Amino acid sequence: MNHFFVAGFDFGTSYSKVVLRDQLTKLGKAVSFGDEGEGLFPSFVSCDGEKIGSPVGEAFGERVPYLKLLAADSATERQDYRALYSTALKTTPAADLLLTAFFASVISGILEFIANDSEWDDFVIGQDIVVIQLAVPTGMMERRDSKLEKLMKGALKAAYFLVEQRGVSSERMPLKTLRAAYDKANSSPEDSRLDQLCGIYPEVAAGVQTVLRSRSSPDGKYITMDVGAGTVDLNAFYYMSGRTGPPRCLNYWSCQVVPLGCSRLPSLHEDAGSHERTSGTLTSSQVQSGIGKAITSLMNKAFSYQPRKILGDGGDPWSRTTHCYVFGGGARNQLYIDELWDRLQELKIGISALYWLPQPSEGFALPGDVDQFGRFAVAYGLSFHAANLEEVRLPSELQTFREAYPNAGKPSKPPRYTPCTCYSNPDCVRCGGTGFLNP
Amino acid sequence: MVVRHRHRPGTVGVLTGNVIKGIVPMVEVKWADETAFEPLAALEIFTASEDQSFESLIRSGRYGDLDAMRSLMTFEKLRGDLSNVVYCMRTAEIDFYPHQFLPVLKFVQSPLGRLLIADEVGLGKTIEAALIWTECQARFKARRLLVICPPTLIPKWIRELQDRFGIDAQYANAKGLLEHFKNCERKGAGQGFAIVTSYHALRPRRNEKRYLQPWLSGHSGPLGDDEVDEKLEKRARVNLFRGLLEWNHKHSFADLVVFDEAHLMKNTATATHVVGEVFSSSSQGVLALSATPLNNQTRDLYALLKLVDPDMFRDEATFNALRERNRPAVLLANELGRTAPDFQRCAEHLHLIPPSAAKDHLALHLNNHTICAGEISPSERVSMLSKAQRLNELGAFLNRTRKVEVFQNKVTRDAVTLNVKPTPEESAFYNGVLKLIRRRVAERGDVLSVFHLISPALTMASCLPVMAAKLRDGRSRWGDLDDLAALDDPFEAEDESEDFVCEEPQAIADDLSWVRNHDFDSCDTKYARLRDELLRRTPTDKVIIFAFFKDTLRYLQRRLEQDGMKCILVTGDVKTPEERDALLRSFEAPESRVLLCSEVAAEGVDLQFCRIMVNYDLPWNPMRVEQRIGRIDRIGQAAQTIVIINFNVEGTIDGSICVHLHHKIGVFTQTVGDLEGIMGQHISSLTRELLVDELSSEQIEQKIVQTAAAIEKERVITREVCDESDSLIGLRSILQDSVSKGETLGRYIKANELRRFTDEFFAETYGGNQHCQLSWDSPHDQCLTLHFSFEAMSDFESFLRRNDLHWPKGFNTRQRLTALTFSPQQFEQSKKKHRNLILANHLHPFVQWMTNTRREGSKSWHPASASILSSKRWEAGSYLFLIMRLSLSHPAMSRKELVFRASHLDSGIVLSAEDSEALVNDLLEAGRSWGTTRGHPDYSVEFKCLVATANEDCRARQEAFGEDLELRVNSKRAQITNHFQSRIEGAGRRLEIMAQRGDRARGIRLMESQVEALQKRLEEELSILNGDLVVTPQFKRVACGLIRIQPSH
After folding, report:
1. Measured between CB atoms, which of B1, B38, B67 is closest to A435?
2. Which of B356, B443, B751, B804 is deepest in the core (most CB within 10 A)?
3. Strand partners, B747
4. What Rg do the C-alpha atoms of chain A give, in angstroms?
5. ipTM greater than 0.85, yes or no?
């Protein structure tokens, strides 16, 4: 085996991003699709009722955008987002098939990227391995029936199966072929090879991974905010790095997605009742009146979500500081960030500074003309092997500190094996050359 | 079981036993900094007995990543003792001018750490001095800086040191300095300070000087009064000087003392000279700055060099002998510097040089060439040239850069002369006063009175309405000058008493009584011309107007402000330097347009953001004009041309001077830095002639033209003297070469290197709950917002305390939040927006702390790396490189260098040391890890070859070091002997005096034991130098690796 890739796949509403990492050499790269230097893959497919085509192929039929929202509607059996795509679309194929076709074109794009890369050109399909890890919207994962999770994973497996069968291609796929592939891929037993090749992970936690990977993160409380153009994802959790005993774990007490993106600054401002807009730039007081209230209410909601559970247990005993990170395209909007900072200070939850997500200095390359790492944060976080990603307890599974770490503060048991300082010297008399001292 | 990661061979971990089975089996490994699941295929078993030599790494292809190599190289540089790294480069907020680094290199390479910088005005001597200090801090761990300058320059020094170099300098007078002195005596070498003080504060008063006489060398005059004033003994200055003269510790009081405007100490009879003498002999390093070390005699140069190194240049005879001895070395270097050197002549010069190993070596080289008479390769010539330079003993003490050498696109001076035709009343008034002056000169008859009378003449030339007002008030400075120098420095009159009442107001009133009733203000033709000129120019252009007299300036301020131009007035009245500073800064604000300035006020000030200056009145001495122009024609002037506006008032002496003298000499169009020594005499005799005799305007013109011709003639002679003095210094090409090499080969510490170093340091040193938050590019690009953890803060604190370092600005134990940047450019951009932002270079306590912690720790990096570089510069293919650290040391001198060697594997060509260094530098700058899974072939054979070449290199360097060492030991021996001898002699003199006075036996015994101690130390020091000159070199392999060059698109 020359290569063992994990592809972190950030499935976005309008654009998707992929970061590929060789687990052997630890070298990671953001995938560029075709000539696209920005590293973005448009999230739509074309469809004419009989066949579904990939976004990079020749345009035909109708364009089906917002695949993510479509999938959400399909899983919830509601029509929340129907308004966004119904007008243009007459006959919509089932969401699972659309997703399968789309994922197949993404996987094709990834394989093509590997084949064209000078450092990875010794990749052999079949012998070397690519694992796809897909980010799934968290709010939807919270549903008990986890239908969306099943739908997405099913489609991903089908897509993988299809690419393995057909090879890399951007040809249109008949609905029948897609259906057959979907059924075949999902009929195999659990924990099959396909299951291992296709993983899913909560989207919010994927972004958090980047924060935790970007530096050796301390144990403590965290807030991370993915400030997009339209929405803001807010995560509040506490984290144990596992260095001091208890297993690594992210314990969420809130994850919110709210329409407070930085491009909405002017309209938020108008909502607040003030209509004197200066040309292009808003003054700080105007922003304050517009966005201030919204952020405050969001924060209050986030922190009163399960306050009793968190604080009722005596609060967290190990840290009074809250580490606060912002990333995403809007994180560089100074006006927005200034306002956010003021609001966060009002909460008095121990935020001493607001940190930007820096580009990792080691073993990672963005596409040529991209300078903002923040946009790839989610995909980057997912490009680590699942075994090395933290266990995530979503808000419904939130455990208090005592629940999560019943043994914390008690003297820890001695480890089962103590490594010997001789580094497995065969002549060592203490360990007999095994490298470990028996208890 | 202990395992190693195949692609990061430097990291070793232990298996925890957790396994994930699947299509790719994963096992959990406990690494030093984390526990993680790794693919089984990426691991291999590690055995401690494994061969870790470079050969073994190359054989088995165990290459690590480039990041480890980068960290390794940064750390090697940060350790601070590499001889070929220019540590001060890019540490300060200054633009890069190679000539400013020449003195730095010269200072570092100089055997004794003593240098006279005699660059021309406006080349940034202050910056050069600060750069040298930075370099001293990095290399020699210097901590005590003392700057002595004229009082007006104190704020400028403090501000420049603080703003540009982040050095927190303080002002101290003699009392303050005495306190530091006592601290230094008590606490020893660990004490650190940066002090700026003035000659005026330090120079001993007459009775103090008499008191100190017995301590001073060469002053063997009789002791003054037998009764020593008790008060005198208590004076801080006296105590300080006595202490310094009796200083007997191993460490010096100051590591570096800087004498600014050192020519002030030129006269050996003055008290200022005593300051120089005392501080020079009690400091480790001495730096004298002077734009004009040479008048028309080389004796001045001697006087300054004696201050720079009193031990080396004990008397003029020694100096002259040294000069003679040195001449062949200079001639040799000059000959070798030509494109086609005449080896025969070289050999002749070489023959005259005193024998040494370096000479023999060079002779061997030369012989080869004279015999073969073949072509000489450039590299060989450079090496011969550098050898010849080393033989030049005097060159090491003096650095002189001329403006012509520096400015390729020199600022052009655009002189505008405004012709003013005075009204009949003005002419009448002018001639009337002139007549009066001449009459009075004739009456008094003595020479002195000429100078007494020049003041009203100047006032009149400066501004008629002011003169008229003075006459009206019956108030004039009629002969209140009692110093001859005032003629040369007319503006010094400004600080004299202002309200001198005219002796015979009546006499004036009789002759010029009509003046009382005439309104000169409203029909002032000169002012009207100025106003029109200012209005004609763009309103955004800032203008400086120079005039001698406060009254003129006030008058101009009043008139200009009436005409709607905002003025800032800076005169000698502004007493405190801070106030003056604030005024000059306020001129930078966009709303102020005109700066009205007297010369006293503008001395040493940088006003290069203006490009227009007006000489409202004109000093007769062109040097004064040059100094005025020098305020704006200096480094940093962004404009292509500067405009100099002068007035030619028809029918006046000043008008003729402007047209016939100044224009002729070319003061308005070129730098006349070489004229200073000539001017004084000519101008004073011209002044006398013009004022004493009744001359017609034609005669006046003729006189002036004659003077101009005389000056021009002498200028030619002086140029010759200067050229000769340049030949003392010899060729500069080698140093220049090494400055540009330092720049291109990255032999300095870069901001991004510090960034990586910091990142790695905090990630590895403070993990888990001791974690520090680092946020890069916040609050701005290339800035770091750092939140210390409690542990880190307390470690930092204790480091500072342990090392006796000052608490740095911007760090706070309570908040533990700091914003800093490593990039001077970024600091310059953001400092106004973020007041708390600090600039940290590698000398900042923060970086020192990290380096120190690293040095104490056992962290090591994997020395072998494989990397890829996309580049057009290098031939495509694979290269193997090796970096070695060569340390050579001897008590008198030590040198540590990195030796680079690389070879092209496909062609087998071994690159030169310099090319290899450039290749590695490019790699560190733009390369990336070569994370291939395919494995690397065995390059043992090629590596062996490379090692042999590198060893050869090291040996060559060792040889050069040996030659240098011999020369240095010789000069050091002479210096030490002279130094101690003079002190022993001084003590002997005092002993004699004590015996004469009949002092108590105990005191005499004490003195005798002091002499013995001095003798003993002299012997000790000499025994070190007299020992063997055998140097045992240490070669240490630092790094090696494989580079693949990809042709870039």
Report:
1. B1
2. B751
3. none
4. 24
5. no
